[in-house]
Specification:
This protein is of the alpha+beta class. It has helices spanning about 1-10, 10-35, 45-70, 80-105, 115-185, 185-205, 215-230, 255-270, 310-325; strands at about 210-215, 235-240, 250, 275-285, 285-295, 330-335, 340-350. The strands form two sheets. A five-stranded mixed β-sheet has the order 2-4-5-7-6, with helices on one face.
Length: about 350
């Protein structure tokens, strides 16, 4: 019991005790006022009786609840009913003793009084009503916490599912390209296979956490772009810009690779001369802004599944951002002045901020 009391007596449970005590005081005052108005005696005498009975019952029941329960909730089974009975009985006899001492009456003289029956009925009904109210509030609060935990676990599972969908998508595309190179350019196929082996080693050995530093995201992206550069040769150029101050900022894994894959597949590969992919991060007040710009065929290209059409990568990244950040994050596509596509991701940096308006690329 002492171990349970020490474990359950947290800051939150102490605040609950205080709220319960103040509620008991208010309820006892109402009972005292009702008894005084009904002609049972002076207001101050009824107030002392009522407060003494109520506060002793509250203390015994609330402290007993923390001592008997394993989770700072209400004790299960018969222990809960016994606790209420003991608390009410202790409050009844102890409170009446205090009231008798205050009023000058003979100790426990009420046992022989005609008002004994009504006094015990009022005490029992009031005690049961207050206990049920506290029990309902505590159970509701506990269920709310369980629902929030279940929702968080569901969101975590959903993010894991999205990530497992993204990685095979990238792998299948790479293997298809590797198959073509084996027949046309074996040396480049071997180099590409070596890059793929290194990329998968880093990816599969990493943790499956829901976030990692932005520097890790850029390193992963660099491995992927090096892999693609083996296949495309001089047709693919890339620039990665990450300020040192933003390297430790946590972001969801695999957030940028699907967008880069979209840019290469639908933007740069259709162009004979290829093009460049630029990924840069910057801070805008309390927001993290990541811009991914390619010099490909652009949003208005005839390809039906261009980035502007919300292809696989764009749709998955949007869904992940919404799952993690809700309205706090955004992904917008636009056309830079030089053509191509600019994907702008805006995330809250530090504390959550109001919904961010997508920034236009310069």
């Amino acid at each position: 019991m002492i171990a349970n009391l020490r474990r359950n007596l947290t800051r939150e449970s102490a605040l609950d005790l205080l709220r319960h005590g103040l509620s008991t005081v208010a309820f006892s005052c109402l009972i005292a006022a009702a008894l005084a108005l009904s002609g049972r005696g002076r207001w101050d005498v009824q107030l002392v009786y009522s407060l003494a009975i109520g506060m002793i019952s509250w203390f015994v029941i609330d402290i007993g609840r923390l001592a008997l329960s394993d989770q700072s909730l209400w004790p299960h089974g018969a222990r809960g009913f016994v606790l209420v009975i003991v608390g009410i009985a202790t409050g009844f006899f102890g409170g009446n003793a205090i009231g008798d001492a205050y009023s000058g009456a003979k100790a426990f003289d009420f046992l022989h009084s005609h008002s004994f029956a009504s006094t015990i009925v009022i005490t029992v009904l009031a005690g049961i009503a207050i206990c049920y109210f506290y029990y309902s509030r505590g159970k509701s609060k506990y269920l709310e916490g369980e629902i929030a935990l279940a929702q968080r676990d569901a969101a975590d599972a959903r993010l894991k599912l999205l990530e497992t969908q993204l990685e095979p998508h990238m792998l299948f595309n790479t293997l298809a390209n590797l198959r073509a190179l084996i027949a046309t350019d074996p040396p480049r196929a071997i180099a590409m296979l070596d890059r793929l082996n290194g990329y998968l080693r880093v990816t599969l050995s990493g943790s499956r956490a829901l976030s990692h530093p932005l520097a890790a995201e850029f390193e992963r992206l660099s491995d992927y772009l090096e892999l693609m550069a083996v296949r495309m040769g001089d047709r693919l150029r890339f620039v990665l810009e990450l300020p040192d101050a933003l390297r430790a900022v946590p972001v969801p894994p695999l957030m940028l690779q699907p967008l880069v894959e979209n840019s290469i597949r639908h933007g740069l590969e259709p162009k004979v001369e290829g093009g460049q992919v630029t990924v840069r991060a910057r801070q805008d007040g309390k927001r993290l802004v990541i811009e991914l710009i390619d010099t490909g065929v652009g949003i208005d290209a005839p390809a039906g599944d261009a980035p502007s059409a919300g292809g696989f990568g764009v749709a998955q990244v949007r869904e992940r951002l919404e799952t993690i950040y809700g309205a706090e994050a955004s992904l917008a596509l636009s056309t830079p002045p030089g053509g191509g596509v600019c994907a702008t991701i805006v995330l809250p940096l530090g504390k959550p901020t109001p919904a961010a308006r997508p920034l236009a690329c310069p």
